[in-house]
Amino acid sequence: MGLTDPPTRHHRLLAWVGEVAELTDPDQIVWCDGSPGEWERLTAELVAFGTLVPVPAKPDSFLARTDPNDVARVEERTFICSADPEDAGPTNNWTAPDYMRETMTGLYRGSMRGRTMYVVPFCMGSLDAEKPMFGVEITDSAYVAVSMHIMTRMGTSVLDAMGKNADFVKCLHSVGAPLAPGETDALWPCNETKYISHFPDDREIWSFGSGYGGNSLLGKKCYALRIGSTMGRDEGWLAEHMLILRLTSPEGKVYHVTGAFPSACGKTNLAMLEPTIPGWKVETLGDDIAWLRYGEDGRLWASNPEYGFFGVAPGTDYRTNPNAMRTIEKGHTLFTNVALTDDGDIWWEGMGESPEHLIDWKGRDWTPNSEEPSSHPNSRFCTPIKQCPVLAEQYDDPRGVPIDAILFGGRRATTIPLVTQARDWVHGVYMGATLSSETTAAATGKVGVVRRDPMAMLPFIGYNAADYFGHWIEMGKAATSEDLLPEVFYVNWFRRSEDGRFLWPGFGENSRVLKWVVERLEGRGEAVETPIGYCPTPESLDVEGLDMGESDLKAALQVDPEEWAEEIPLVESWFARFGDRLPTVLWSELDALKQRLDLP
Ligand code: PEP
Ligand code: MN
Ligand code: NA
């Protein structure tokens, strides 16, 4: 058993593994080494049991079908357990750390009975970083262990780099489904009771009851964003829900852009887009999370702490995201809750015309006449970043890349123009702080409701959101010169016409917006100064070869005073939630905006 002959002499790690084993009482302990052999063994075991179904049309690829009640992040069961409730702020669920530890200790007692406990040493970001960001996830889910193979740098190399004393984030995960002797396991064990708890003061994560994505792959949202944002607050950096891309112009000039968009709003598509305008090239560094730190040159640099993509499947195909398709085509990919074709391939809504027959995500026969979609709207592909054909070679550089522009974006049918440039850093922070979007299937709950989603981080800020805005302001002040800061832009690919059509074609055509962004960085792009910031004139946006009516273009770019008159009260009540804690410069931004809009 893994306790008598452990592959490490890290005393605090060993003590913690021992404690958890005593509490949860697993049948055996396995220290994950991250080897291809381990991947083969675990996937074979999962296939033999039936939790994974092979996808023969793609090499070394598998499909998991979850319990229908365990299909998305559970924001209402996500807790920030800071000592002081004020430190969790009004946007997080707070519970006292002692109370949460007591409650969850009760749930964890014996929760791994009949199961294997996997110890997964991992590192968020490059192992060559000055201070590698270690974590160890203890989990009783083999699905989680193999997913961590894809999403993180993990295994023996990490354990070796940790040595005997490195700090690491403790991540404890149990699906919460102990097995009695002789009891047959469920294909997707989980528990109706779910907790996704964070102890920011101790840099610890406790997750119980769910095996799904962001609830269970604890390096991702829980560590790299929630705990990461708290670390960033304390240490002077930013953990953000951002893609990172590298853009090369026809003249060969290179720019780096990050983009913050809520879940299921096209981050993966934008990160690896194929420009439709000649001569431009996009390469990918990350599609979901960016850590932003100042470099020695005084610029803000971004690095991706992840090692794979956990992308939303529906809507992804060769027309919308050819590079994601090429990435998964290479195999070694875990699919979750998608449909299976009769010839052993995967299928989901948005992949063109549907086959005549499928096995849907619940394992049932499906035909085009079936009432429900064949794939869950939040179904996913989990695939190694290294397989991406347009991966930028800097992806593994511990310094990351220097950022030229930050995009904030949401999914809004009205009000928000295609692109608006902020006047300065503080105005950019205001744009981020007031970002809003219609909810998607990426979290449980109602879809299509407009909510504020500051910096696309609403579900992921690990502390008081007002303090987080303040931290963004402080990061700007920390710049040696305002000129070195990235320019900030607010984009909306999702504005609709009165008859409900999308006004802007999106996907590869978004390269036209990136081109305008670059022209603005160069100080040449034309813009009109509107009350909300700088917007392109219809002529300044390159629409050559684009089949788009002039009136649609104007409507996509429009700043409509009536729509803004409806928007401002929503922003006011959003800001009011933070009381005195909201940085006063944000109130000043709002006041100035109201004045420019001629609003009382
Ligand atoms: C998830 O929900 O499991 C996840 C990884 O993130 P997102 O919702 O941002 O895609
Ligand atoms: Mn995300
Ligand atoms: Na989700």
From TrEMBL:
Source domain of life: Bacteria
GO molecular function, one term: phosphoenolpyruvate carboxykinase (GTP) activity
Reported cofactor(s): Mn(2+)
Note on cofactor: Binds 1 Mn(2+) ion per subunit.
Matches recorded under SUPFAM superfamilies: PEP carboxykinase N-terminal domain, PEP carboxykinase-like
The keyword Signal is annotated on this UniProt entry: no
Enzyme class: lyase
Subcellular location: Cytoplasm
UniProt EC number: 4.1.1.32
Pfam families linked: PEPCK_GTP, PEPCK_N
Annotated positions binding substrate: R73, Y212, G213, G214, S263, N378, S379, R380
Pathway recorded for this protein: Carbohydrate biosynthesis; gluconeogenesis
Residues reported in the UniProt entry to bind Mn(2+): K221, H241, D288
Keyword annotations: Cytoplasm, Decarboxylase, Gluconeogenesis, GTP-binding, Lyase, Manganese, Metal-binding, Nucleotide-binding
Location of the Phosphoenolpyruvate carboxykinase C-terminal P-loop domain: 237-596
Family the UniProt entry places it in: Belongs to the phosphoenolpyruvate carboxykinase [GTP] family.
Alphabetical list of NCBIfam families matching this protein: PRK04210.1
Role, per record: Catalyzes the conversion of oxaloacetate (OAA) to phosphoenolpyruvate (PEP), the rate-limiting step in the metabolic pathway that produces glucose from lactate and other precursors derived from the citric acid cycle.
Quaternary structure and interacting proteins, as annotated: Monomer.
Record protein name field: Phosphoenolpyruvate carboxykinase [GTP]
